[in-house]
Amino acid sequence: MTNTVNFDPSKKSVAVICYAPISDEKLLTTLKQLFSLRPAHWRMSLQLLLDRPSDSLLKLIESLGLAITVVPVKSSRKLAKSKRFALQNISRDVEAIIWLDGRVNLNSAAYNQLNNFSTSYPSAILIGQFLDKSKSLVLAGGYQKSHLPIFGKRAVMADKLPVDVTAFDSALVFIPNVVFNKIGNLGTRASPASANRNFVRRAKRANFRTLVLPGSFGDFQ
């Protein structure tokens, strides 16, 4: 299912790929939030990956009148295939792709933070970090290799400035076209952790940085 809307060609074209294994009620709230929070100069389209969506849910999504293409996910084993299909749906003129976990709650400043840092670091892969407010711990974001092999990796807390990382979670990943046009997009294999580490390595070899951004972009549902 694809909603067709009129786009303003003068605005920055940003595509979002979002897998949302959440309830229908929460999904509709999340979709409205995603589009209402976007910067005014962005024209955003969404590839929405859903587990076996019902006809009634598809009709509700269509009624929102937003630029949403629903990509059904037949099973967890087919998720990687659905992600590849979503990538194929994205227009070639898109200026950036955001990979987003549908289970996160974005705060009101998230997209503006992302936009500001993408202006300052136009050729970097940008990673949003999400916090457990009660514990002040990073639940998702970037990682660096640990000096202790038993741990494998340790979370990075970006406080005031972006921090280079060697791996990341896929809660929010911003990839500008200058990056994916040269090294391809995120891996869509069944093991995202391994694919994300490999993506950072490919980016580094091509002289692109992978930065976890300071502050919290929100929290998990």
Task: Give the low-confidence spans.
Answer: 147-151
What structural category characterises the helix and strand content? alpha/beta
Helix content: 25-40%
Q: Which series of helices and strands comes N to C?
A: EHEHEHEEHEEEEEEEEHHEE
How many beta strands in the DSSP annotation? 15
| CATH hierarchy, class | Alpha Beta
**Biggest sheet overview:** 8 strands, mixed
CATH architecture label:
Alpha-Beta Complex
Shape: globular
For CATH, the homologous superfamily is named as: Spore Coat Polysaccharide Biosynthesis Protein SpsA, Chain A
Report the radius of gyration as a whole number of Å: 17 Å
Distance between the termini: 26 Å
Query: How much of the residues is beta strand, in percent?
Result: 25-35%
Task: Write a structural description.
- The protein is an alpha/beta fold and 221 residues long.
- It has one domain (12-220): Alpha-Beta Complex (Spore Coat Polysaccharide Biosynthesis Protein SpsA, Chain A), CATH 3.90.550.10.
- The chain has six helices and 15 strands.
- The protein has helices at residues 24-36, 55-63, 79-89, 110-120, 177-183, 192-205; strands at 12-19, 42-51, 68-73, 96-101, 104-106, 125-127, 130-132, 137-140, 142-145, 153-156, 163-164, 167-168, 172-176, 210-212, 218-220.
- It has an eight-stranded mixed β-sheet, sandwiched between helices.
- A hairpin with a 4-residue loop joins strand 7 (130-132) and strand 8 (137-140).
- The protein is globular and about 45 Å long.
